[in-house]
């Protein structure tokens, strides 16, 4: 039996943070070999927010280095960037034509922007249908993501229904894969960790950058277990000790926090140490990957992805009626 298809993607809109790692990349690394997997850099999605071409290019290269550094073997996955496969924007357009304006107006990313009084570009508005295209083109069944992407996967399912009803059975309904403990990694201010909230702990920051971020995590005035710090630390500790082992048990972690209720500095230092343990080997691996390595990986990935996407789009074009 052939393996089920899996796909996920990250925007090339800035440096990745530990929320991206625990919410999407780590789950991907743990499951991708059991599936026929695709890992994408969403560079066209990033155009909704990045205006500087140099920055976009650099972000794209950096994200691929991050993918490889966290343990994704490019030989075992189709790793590619969205803009290399023209079928994504093509299918995105068709899906845009099937959903309504009020439906897209309910999308969180768009709603949040408008609620803040900011002007959303039309790309941000139709963003969910480009993402649906990313997923549907490859007959993806499983999409590992963080909680903030749940609605987008629902929208992709809606796009499937709309298309299949209009043109006949064509696409498969994808399902999100969201982990309970790490679906929403809190940021240093206690809100969801997010680039746009400027509350991140960088994944591949220098030790100084990581230290600066951790030292800024909000705590109470003393005497109580600092919730935000504890929650972030619990996630990191779980990963460092490979989901807790006897030598570094949940009990030890609990003790650390009860014994240091009023010593936030000691707790923060312990977290910095744990992050370093987790990141140091990945940082080393990352440093060994050149920009040309990245280009080669993306070229090979694009060839494989293109073959699949082209085949799917041929069927779609015929069904829609643009082939004569
Ligand atoms: P993006 O680039 O905002 O985030 C990438 C992944 O990181 C997860 N994530 C988090 N998980 C837990 N806690 C957090 N604080 C946190 N912050 C971010 C996100 O949920 C996501 O899984 N639209 C997508 C990119 C995309 C995509 C796709 C994903 C484009 N096409 C197709 C899957 C399939 C996005 O903006 O993710």
TrEMBL record:
InterPro entries the record matches: aa-tRNA-synth_Ic (IPR002305), Rossmann-like_a/b/a_fold (IPR014729), Trp-tRNA-ligase (IPR002306), Trp-tRNA_synthetase (IPR050203)
BP terms from Gene Ontology: tryptophanyl-tRNA aminoacylation
Gene Ontology CC: cytosol
Keywords for this protein: Aminoacyl-tRNA synthetase, ATP-binding, Ligase, Nucleotide-binding, Protein biosynthesis
Keyword Lyase: no
One Pfam family, short name: tRNA-synt_1b
Keyword Lyase on entry: no
GO molecular function annotation: ATP binding; tryptophan-tRNA ligase activity
EC number: 6.1.1.2
Taxonomic superkingdom: Bacteria
Top EC class of this enzyme: ligase
Catalytic activity: tRNA(Trp) + L-tryptophan + ATP = L-tryptophyl-tRNA(Trp) + AMP + diphosphate + H(+)
Family: Belongs to the class-I aminoacyl-tRNA synthetase family.
PANTHER family: TRYPTOPHAN--TRNA LIGASE, MITOCHONDRIAL
Protein's recorded name: Tryptophan--tRNA ligase
Organism: Candidatus Kaiserbacteria bacterium CG10_big_fil_rev_8_21_14_0_10_47_16
Gene name, Swiss-Prot/TrEMBL: trpS
């Amino acid at each position: 039996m052939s393996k089920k298809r899996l796909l996920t993607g990250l925007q090339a809109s800035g440096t990745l943070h530990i929320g991206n790692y625990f919410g999407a990349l780590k789950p991907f690394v743990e499951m991708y070999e059991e599936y026929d997997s695709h890992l994408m850099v969403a560079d066209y999605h990033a155009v909704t927010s990045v205006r500087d071409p140099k920055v976009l290019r650099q972000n794209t290269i950096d994200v691929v280095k991050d993918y490889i550094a966290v343990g994704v073997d490019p030989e075992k996955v189709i790793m590619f960037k969205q803009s290399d496969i023209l079928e994504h924007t093509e299918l995105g357009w068709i899906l845009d034509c099937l959903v309504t304006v009020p439906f897209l107006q309910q999308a969180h990313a768009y709603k949040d922007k408008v609620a803040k009084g900011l002007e959303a570009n039309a790309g941000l508005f139709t963003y969910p249908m480009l993402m649906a295209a990313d997923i549907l083109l490859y007959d993806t069944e499983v999409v590992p993501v963080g909680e903030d992407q749940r609605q987008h996967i629902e929208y992709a399912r809606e796009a499937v229904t709309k298309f299949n009803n209009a043109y006949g059975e064509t696409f498969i309904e994808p399902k999100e894969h969201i982990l309970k403990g790490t679906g929403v990694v809190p940021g240093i201010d206690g809100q969801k960790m997010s680039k746009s909230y400027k509350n991140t702990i960088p994944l591949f920051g220098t030790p100084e950058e990581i230290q600066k971020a951790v030292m800024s995590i909000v705590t109470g005035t003393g005497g109580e277990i600092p919730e935000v710090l504890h929650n972030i630390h619990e996630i990191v500790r779980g990963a460092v000790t490979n989901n807790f082992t006897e030598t570094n048990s949940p009990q030890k972690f609990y003790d650390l926090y009860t014994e240091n209720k009023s010593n936030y500095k000691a707790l923060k230092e312990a977290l910095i140490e744990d992050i370093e343990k987790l990141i140091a080997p990945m940082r080393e691996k990352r440093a060994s990957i050149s920009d040309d390595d990245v280009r080669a990986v993306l070229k090979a990935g694009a060839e494989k992805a293109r073959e699949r996407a082209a085949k799917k789009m041929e069927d779609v074009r015929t069904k829609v009626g643009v082939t004569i």
